[in-house]
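Continuing the series of single-chain predictions for the mutant panel. This is the parent chain; the variants come on the following pages.
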Amino acid sequence: MIVLVARYYVKPGMGDAVAEALQQMALRVKVDEPGCTLYHACRSQENADMFLLYEHYVDAAALAAHRETPHFQQIIEGTIIPMLEKRERELYTLVVD
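Parent structure:
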């Protein structure tokens, strides 16, 4: 199991737009990506322009497939990334399931 943790630092005042786009993304992942077993998008309680994404993928192929989906290209690459100041990503291996 591969765990992806991403932090989105959103340009000031664009947090609501990113939240809306992440809701759309979560729905598409749930419907179209059986290799993604968990997709949580969280918004900071202290900074409305900061997000944490926590995702589980069955293997590296499922993670690679996620990045190639039309919804990833449209929503993440096309909509969200232009609204970010910075994006950080880390990959982990799940120790305990």
